[in-house]
Amino acid sequence: MAHTVSDLAALVRERQPCVVLTGAGISTESGVPDFRSPSGIWAKYDPMEYATITAFRRDPVKVWEFYALRFELLTAAEPNPGHLALAELERRGLVTAVVTQNIDGLHTRAGSHAVVEVHGSIRSASCLDCGERVPLEEVIAALRDSPAPPCPQCGAVLKPDVVMFGELLPALAIDRAIELARLAGLLLVVGSSLEVHPVAGLTGETVSAGGALAIVNRGQTPFDRLASVRIDGGAGATLSALAEALA
Q: If 0-12 CB within 10 Å is exposed, 13-18 middle and 19+ buried, where does residue 227 land?
């Protein structure tokens, strides 16, 4: 049976609190390329060369050449109707928090306040040697003069504050995400294929605790059978319609 936005709106009303989990599918509508699709970033760049902590330690300049291009694109991207709809639903008290796999900061820029970034963020870079953290504006300014931004304190190359392959997820963020998932009356997944663990496991945390699961995504996910509502569609149009239905 095909589900509708009306079905989703009824579920949001009935199963509070609602926690939202977002993936690349919400940001592609802002022009941010995804990673895993056939036309995604990893189809063009070998992640083992550009996105592992080992690669960064071996050749940070090469890794920064990759990230510098992405920073330019990500800082130019603007929140889309999907991001704005979630911020509006938070303001109305219908969304408790957004857990996101995205590193682009678009949820915060759209006006969401309770955002948990489980894969880190481009908003800053840190020094692995002395711990200094530098905001994005200073990183971009440094990239104009150097292929890899130096730490202003000790001179070592800064690392983007995004989780690379071979790194653990930030403990505070993933612990908070698990807590939110367990307490959720509804976990609404938007724009995620739910193939990346441990974040995909948040669905099980909610369902095991007696909460409901809803999925809005283009294409199937491994957890569709657990979903009370499943909509195959774009994030922006679906979430905008959801906000309207809940008005």
A: buried
Distance CA 108, CA 84 (A): 10
Are residues 188 and 212 in contact, defined by beta-carbon separation less than 8 angstroms? no
* pLDDT for 65: 85
CATH of the domain at 182: 3.40.50.1220
Contacts for 93 with CB less than 8 Å, ≥ 6 apart = none
Contact 229, 207 (CB under 8 A): no
157 and 244 both lie in a single domain: no
Q: What pLDDT, on the 0 to 100 scale, is given for residue 49? A: 77
* Catalytic residue ranges: 119
Q: What is the CATH number of the domain that holds 41?
A: 3.30.1600.10
pTM for this one? 0.92
Q: What was the pLDDT predicted at 45?
A: 65
Report residue 197 as tokens: 């663990």
- Convert the pLDDT of each residue in 34-49 to its tens digit: 655 555 454 566 767 7
- Residue ranges of the chain with per-residue pLDDT less than 70: 1, 34-45, 47
Q: What is the pLDDT of residues 71-124, one digit of tens each?
A: 777 778 899 999 999 999 999 999 999 999 999 999 999 999 999 999 999 889
